């Protein structure tokens, strides 16, 4: 069986189940409670329908400026810091650095995505937001939804679907074309870190 590092290198995406990543069940519970408290204005672009709770805003937010959007802001900095203390702890960042084969990993942007019935995220790659991004880390925070799979275009002939459940972590290369399919019912909540 391939390691996460090998899957990232060869396919650009890997789904890690609870116990295979640096976040404990207790930390996942804390993240869920904290993320539920975040204000959640709409997402970016017409192709996306979701609420976004800002945790960390990248000062080099190229896509927003070029598209004429007002700069994003963190509306609940105290809650955002508590979330970052968990997801970007020294222990977690050391784990991700090893997994990504990097000396150091820096979180450049972080947000919680709230998708309800009918919401989706259109096809894109994370370099569209910032070409310096290397990987995204998607932490699943709910199970109570249908649809809403993470879609990954591995090659022109190989498109894969991943269901990111509560406590799962999906990691993907920033250059990977991906989307989130329409949520058919319930609420899909995930916490996303964009790293360099």
UniProtKB/TrEMBL annotation:
Pfam families: 2OG-FeII_Oxy_3 (PF13640)
Lineage top rank: taxon: Bacteria
InterPro entries, sorted: Oxoglu/Fe-dep_dioxygenase_dom, Pro_4_hyd_alph_FE2OG_OXY
Domain Fe2OG dioxygenase: 95-196
SUPFAM superfamilies: Clavaminate synthase-like
Protein name, as recorded: Fe2OG dioxygenase domain-containing protein
Species assigned in the record: Actinoplanes campanulatus
Source taxonomy: Bacteria, Bacillati, Actinomycetota, Actinomycetes, Micromonosporales
């Amino acid at each position: 069986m391939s390691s996460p590092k090998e899957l990232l290198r060869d396919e650009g995406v890997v789904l890690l189940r609870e116990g295979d990543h640096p976040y404990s069940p207790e930390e996942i519970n804390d993240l869920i409670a904290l993320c539920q408290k975040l204000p959640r204005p709409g997402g970016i672009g017409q192709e996306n329908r979701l609420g976004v709770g800002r945790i960390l805003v990248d000062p080099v937010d190229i896509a927003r400026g070029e598209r004429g959007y007002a700069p994003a802001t963190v509306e609940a900095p105290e809650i955002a810091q508590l979330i970052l203390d968990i997801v970007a702890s020294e222990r977690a960042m050391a784990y991700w650095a090893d997994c990504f084969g990097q000396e150091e990993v820096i979180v450049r942007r972080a947000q919680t995505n709230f998708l309800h019935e009918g919401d989706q995220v259109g096809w894109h790659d994370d370099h569209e937001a910032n070409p310096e991004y290397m990987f995204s880390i998607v932490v699943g925070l709910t199970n109570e939804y249908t649809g809403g799979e993470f879609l990954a275009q591995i090659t022109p002939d190989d498109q894969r679907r991943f269901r990111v459940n509560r406590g799962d972590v999906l990691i993907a290369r920033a250059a990977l074309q991906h989307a989130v399919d329409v949520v058919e019912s319930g609420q899909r909540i995930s916490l996303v870190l964009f790293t360099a």
